[in-house]
Amino acid sequence: MATGKSDISGWLVRPAGIGWWAGLVAVLAALTTHTVLVTSDGGMDNGIVVDAARTWLDGGSPYDDEHFLYFPSAVMAAAAQALLPRSVLDVLVPAAVVLALALGWVCALLLHRVPLRSRLAVLGLLGLAAGFAPFAQLVRLGNWTVTAVLALPLCLLLASRGRWVAAGAVIGVAVALKPLLAPMALLFLFARRWGALALVVLVPAVSSVVAAFFLPDPTGFLTQTLPFLFTADDAFLRLYEAGPAAVLPRLGVPQALAQAPAVAAAAVGVGCAYRRWRGPGPEPLRLAETSAGLMLSAFLVSRPSYNHYLLVVLPLLLAGLPYAGSVTRRPGFWLALVPQLPGVTWPWLESGKRRAFRDAVTLCVLAGTVAYHAVQGARGAPRDGEGAGRAADGWRAATGGAVRS
């Protein structure tokens, strides 16, 4: 990690003053309080899951709601919320979502050996909360995507320390709650960590099978949810889907022609992710950028695919900014985020119903940048094993040896 004083990294790893932390706390508190005041059941998306659990507790099938797209294991996880009063959920869920987002950022920093008292620790989370619109949207919705935002950096942190089996268990639990991180099975395949890969598959499979026996419709996920995901054309969901397969038909492209480039782009993305895994650079950076490539490839082709899914990969990449070979050093990374700036009105795209076009630009440009970076190689990155040492050396050098992490 380049942390010389002539490089931005040296400035980023220095300790942040109390004023910086006060500003961050103020922004997160304001976002949480506003969400508490304007949402019910912790947010619309959380409400869908909680309502499904309430339906089950009342003897019905949670899969009667076509918008409930989770495994049976998620029903059991949501049952605890279903037993709480709505007034409690209104406060508890937004606070829990913000806390999980913050913890995910902490895990991303620890993965890259960035000190938790550094300026990057403050500015990164502040930038996400105040400068990246999907952050606030995720908090307001209370979407369970937040479980993946926390689980992925935690998984990679464990893997970077050689605890691959524990990392696989983390992904397995996250998939049991929401299948979003299922593509991460490819990382364990790339690394040939078969025991960890087994947990990625078995944890959600076993927990869902067990949970299904307690449902009035044990096969509801297979008979209702899967057909809906593959064949349904839901007018409400389509408005907010950011994947090319959903956006291009809105521009007049036939569905079959729109699906083909999305699948091709996803396949190329997976190939580039494998090349990044086998490429140069310290292991934390390779873990983060390989995982980002896999997840972005999945977002290109998956239905549905929403803008807040980007929060699964963005903190991982952003926390690697001090590395000279990081993808964040490429202009395409920052240009991809421009459509997500809050408060900017884009001509003809200001309507919420057209937001998906901006989201698609961000997704495609970010995926393309990560794939290009994987092919070109992490130029300027230190050799494997040097990143952690340089991070610690840079931290000591930036503080004159007076402060230790």
Determine the fraction of residues in helical runs and give it as a percent range: 55-70%
Based on secondary structure, the structural category is mainly alpha
Tally the helices.
Answer: 20
Q: How large a portion of the residues is in β-strands, by DSSP E?
A: under 5%
Rg from C-alpha positions?
A: 21 Å
Poorly predicted ranges: 2-6, 384-405
Q: Strand tally, please?
A: 0
The chain-level mean pLDDT equals 87
Shape: globular
Please report the distance between the alpha carbons of the first and last residues: 16 Å
Order of helices and strands: HHHHHHHHHHHHHHHHHHHH
Biggest pleated sheet: none
Structural notes for this entry:
With 405 residues, the protein is mainly alpha-helical. 65% of the residues lie in helices and 0% in strands. The protein is built from 20 helices and no strands. The chain has helices at residues 8-12, 18-38, 44-57, 72-82, 86-111, 119-131, 133-141, 145-160, 164-177, 185-191, 194-212, 220-231, 235-238, 244-247, 255-277, 283-301, 314-318, 331-337, 355-376, 387-398. α15 (255-277) runs antiparallel to α16. The longest helix is centred in the first third of the chain and has 26 residues, at 86-111. The radius of gyration is 21 Å and the shape is globular. The two termini are 16 Å apart. The relative contact order is 0.14.
